[in-house]
Amino acid sequence: MHIADYDDTDLRHVDGVPVLAGARLVLDCCDAMPPDSALAVADAALTLGLTGPEQLRAELRRRRGRPGSRGARIVVERAAPGPQSWFESMSRWWLLEAGLPRPQLQVPFRTGTSDRDPTVDMWFPEQRTVGEADGAGKYDEPGSLFHEKLREDWLRDTYGVEVVRWVPREMRTPARRSLVVARFHRAFARGRRTA
Fold this sequence. Notes:
The protein is an alpha+beta fold. It contains 7 helices and 6 strands, in the order ββαααααβββαβα.
């Protein structure tokens, strides 16, 4: 760890206690955490409005030349608002590491009949493929699995898209991640044929 001075703009007060926040916190996490976890912190900070892309880039410039700055640069480049969970961000890190294209996040698909359009975790438009990072709690409610099946059928039937799902244990090791990536490549091939 490096000890560095901080600016007043690096601080937020939470219940009267000053804490590091914003871009400074994100870049400190890049120094201390694995990059997939640091991306989750960066995504959350952007989603919650604690920092913005320009602030992240400015903080990165301040740290130029420090050890670990290359990894932090990649996290900042990949950070985006929108993911609804740590698992979505962490999954995106590993999918990008495997060479998959950068997806759009939290994309609604219009039903035309509902106030609440279904939103997907990741959308790969050129490949016409949806990616769904299914956390363990997603199916805890009775009927949730059936609801997700209907939603997935509707996406395929209405929009002609492919859907790839994965769960946390499939992202834990390189071998398991490679199986998820292979599913994406097969879906991409089918999606391009139907485009």
